[in-house]
Write a structure and sequence with these properties.
3-dehydroquinate synthase (chains A, B); homodimer; alpha/beta; DHQS_C (chains A, B); DHQ_synth_AroB (chains A, B); nucleotide-binding (chains A, B); EC 4.2.3.4 (chains A, B); 2 domains; Dehydroquinate synthase-like, alpha domain; globular
């Protein structure tokens, strides 16, 4: 097992990464009250819920469960309300803990519920997908979607602890493993050319689900995220770089309707678009762009999106949270392995990029 | 005009208190972006909305408006959603400001929307009722009700600035002015015996709506609140004292149904109950209890509640946010003008108190 810390002063917390982790032992120091609400979904429930309920009950905790339907299309205010209902029906108080057992949707919703319930209760992340292990479970961003935009309503709510167990990835469908690899590749592209070389060496083993390789990829990814979050928790600066591929990706997801493309798939194509625009701006070479596309393709991820009318694509992009004073800002690559947040891009070139990366 | 500061480090903010304040001049330094969403209600809209829209437009801001129905019964997730809809339909971004123009319900809802929209945007409070001027507009507590409990879902979201304009109280119904005086009396009872003496001298003028007296009462009340909030923003300790009368009061409000009793009316009776229990515990004298009842009665506030079945009263009390590890804690008076938060009260005496203060 490897341990990383997200250094946030008195809200410092560990990420435990390994296979067949012991939740009873690892969670005990991080549960402060007597009440734990496990939020999970119908897919994860039959696989892992009993294991966690048993561990928590052995610790003497009062455990309640809220099971949501599985899918990004349920990441909305109606289903968030079900968590509040469950907390109040269980009679839970301000000293309770909300434990997210599931992927990014469950983590985002449970974390937002923890942020809002009684104006804030304790929160623990047990991410069961690769994507949530390397991305959403670390850093405290939580929230829900709105019909007019993704993650438009939310809060910063740091967990007490994160457990990333590779054994739980065995049950993950190949398509979702690939979606997680999109965010892994993102760290390499935005900050770590050596990690890109490592991924190029090991992509076959990662796609095949090798636990040791996955643990290493999760560790390296979380190390980048932990460092960036510690420097810039509220995304005033550097943290925005983690959105490489996301502004284009959010437009694709929003247009397609939540849940049609996986988030990681949209981000994958979004990263190709960011690389494509970076190349048109003259910042990276054509070879760099091809290298970016190649590693994404080897992870079985899409490098182009369906045909989307340009004006609609731009409208969805304009809802992005990185818009400041009405000015769209994009995360692009100044060079391969070095991302920047910039408003100084050519809008005509951006249009070319969007049109060039559609099927 | 008098100015108080809530000392919260880099989130320090001023409360401006006076009559016929100039919003254009006072707000300008505290609006950081170009977009302002005014959240108000159907009662306040015809009285004051145009004045604020004009002031903001003179500052060159893009102004949008979200008008909610008036009343505590609308302080719920459905009506909160209307604010998010308005923000997204206006195309507002992460650098926008949400301005609450109204009473406590509007301030709580607009503040919670500001806390959650894009994970947090700027917020300004323009409280138009006495109750919100002395209580909810200061200190950053925001939120909505749930069918199973009041203010169960919310966030701490400090405003950039608070404008408390006594001129706006001229339009306030007498019943609501009295409800505000309940919270004014609360500060005297919990922390300031000299303020109680001042209120006993000036209650007739306050009830009659004398602007100079009201400004002084608001200033003294906000000074207490600002000091307590600066010491204990997240209510880990001292801030809980501000809930004097509120655990009993919330039970009354919840049982009656939101909006039947005004919050201040329920708190008034709740303070009588807290004083009654404090007297039964031997902490304050019978004369102190009578003095408490007398000042509340002189503010035209109720000192007893309708008949509520005991088990229901206790069930609503157990949903209180001050419950810790299943243990109910109450704010009582160790002596008149000195409140304490305690779990060491006699449950049998509490039962007597509830039964003794019903009509």
């Amino acid at each position: 097992m490897q341990t990383l810390y997200v250094e946030l002063g008195d809200r410092r917390y560990p990420i435990f990464i390994g296979s067949h982790l012991n939740p009873q032992q690892l969670l005990e120091p991080y549960i402060h009250g007597q009440q734990v609400m496990i939020v999970t979904n119908t897919t994860v429930q039959p696989l892992y819920l009993d294991h966690y309920v048993a561990a928590l009950e052995k610790l003497g905790k009062k455990v309640a469960v809220c099971v949501l339907p599985d899918g990004e299309q349920y990441k909305n205010i109606e289903h968030l309300t079900l968590i509040f209902d469950a907390l109040l029906e269980a009679g839970f108080n301000r000293d309770c803990t909300v434990l997210a057992l599931g992927g990014g949707v469950i983590g985002d919703m449970a974390g937002f519920a923890a942020a809002c319930f009684q104006r804030g209760v304790y929160f623990i992340q047990v991410p069961t997908t690769l994507l949530s292990q390397v991305d959403s479970s670390v850093g405290g961003k939580t929230g829900i979607n709105h019909p007019l935009g993704k993650n438009m309503i939310g809060a910063f709510q740091q967990p007490q602890v994160v457990l990333a167990d590779m054994a739980q990835l065995k049950s993950l469908p190949a398509r979702e493993l690939s979606a997680g690899l999109a965010e892994v590749i993102k760290y390499a592209l935005l900050a770590d050319i050596e990690f890109l070389v490592w991924l190029e060496e090991h992509m076959e083993g990662l796609v095949a689900g090798d636990s040791a390789l996955l643990a290493e990829a999760v560790y390296r990814s979380c190390a980048h995220k932990a460092r960036i979050v510690a420097n810039d928790e509220k995304e005033q600066g550097e943290r925005a770089l983690l959105n490489l591929g996301h502004t284009f990706g959010h437009a694709i997801e929003s247009y397609m309707g939540y849940g049609v493309w996986l988030h990681g798939e949209a981000v994958a194509t979004g990263m190709v678009m960011a690389a494509d625009l970076s190349q048109r701006m003259g910042w990276i070479s054509a070879a760099d762009l091809e290298r970016t596309k190649k590693i994404i393709q080897r992870a079985n991820l899409p490098v182009a999106c369906p045909k989307i009318p340009l004006e609609e694509f731009l409208a969805y992009m304009s809802h992005d949270k990185k818009v400041l004073n009405g000015q769209l800002r994009l995360v692009l690559m100044k060079q391969l392995g070095q991302a920047i947040l910039t408003k100084d891009f050519d809008v005509e070139l951006m249009t070319q990029t969007i049109l060039a990366n559609q099927n």
